[in-house]
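As a warm-up, study this chain.
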Amino acid sequence: MRAKTLWIAALFLLTGATPFRIVEGPSHLPHVARSMLRAEYWIQRAPDPDRVIVSAAATEALRDRWRREGLLQDLNGFPDLVSAPQLLAWLAENDSYLERVARYNRRGERIGPAVFAELKRNVNRSAVQGSKKTRWGLTIRRTSLRLVPAFLLATTRPLDLEFNVLMHSGLRLAEPVAVLHASRDGHWLYVASEPGLGWVPARDVALAADRRSLDEYRARATAVVVAAEIFFVLPDGSRWEQSARMGCRLRPAGNETWWLPARSADGALNFVRARPLQPEAIAPMPLPCTRRMLLTQAFRLLGKPYGWGGTSGFGDCSETIRRIGLACGLDLPRSTTAVRRALREVPLGKSVRDKQRKLAELPAGSSLLYMPGHIMLMIGREGNRTYVLHNLYGIQAQDQDGDFVRRVARVVVSDLSLGTGSRPGSLLERVESGLILEP
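Now compare it with the structure written out below.
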């Protein structure tokens, strides 16, 4: 799950290795009619849209296989004791990566060795003495899983502020975590979550009394958020501070209310009863994993903002695909490369002709398209054009002054002609394979 080094290829979707000018991109993408922005347009064209393509039993089998293969962190089988050598190895895993890619701060200045030295001190390796007992908790709000115990912004290019390479992933409200270690300043916890290992702010995690009490909550969290985002109100009528986003699993409390995790003054886990402002935005699990459902969920995210590694947005390309899957019971891995390893892959060939032919054979609505650093949901075809829904940061283009990026930074519908004429080529020229969601 520590695939951050491979994520760097996605800093700009259609760019190469040199710096680029960034301009605001088009509000409407070419070859996309207004009617194509509705899920029903593509559902009507999808093959057998109401057939269950991944059963509840199959999703459990897939999740177990992905855990065994290390594509998802296995919290069910996570040890109650972690040895000091293992924990120290995990804590040191990102050292060389950070000094290689974390080059500039938010002011565009070079990050010096003193900053890295302070980060390493705050990792608090000296406190790892003997085996550590695993503690358990739930996130009480949306939060970030980071590679360092600090709110530091670091980029590979000066002032490339939308791409903080210290971000691993976003974590949902009510995400279970195994707590393994604390930072020297006490403000950060090193945790194992299903998307991977990393640091989260201690204020965002409430600690359960024991593993059994957390397992009980998870077992009873039998509903899932299917809207892009919903808000809650408390019994006194005040609004709950945090929203829940697509894929969050919640525990029913009766009478259209839900138990939300909260943190007491001493950091302990407790729960508050809250009522959603949109009751229809929460559905019982498991949802049927059909092409109709996958497309419906995908289009609920249309227009939602891009956020690299979960930064300040609804997610990046792989997080968007993960949320769609979670709503349908599929706990897909977090990174593009891990998703590629998890699913059945269909190579598309090298030539445009081969790709067009292979794309026409893929089932729309249940196929993903992969290129290095980017992943998309294939939603259908019109004529010889293949259409996808994806969270797109930018489109590379060229003018008399050279290469530049048209910034899109949201979930869009597009065909694969984006980037035509640019130095790296179009999406169609760069896409490598199809990934089939059906087992």
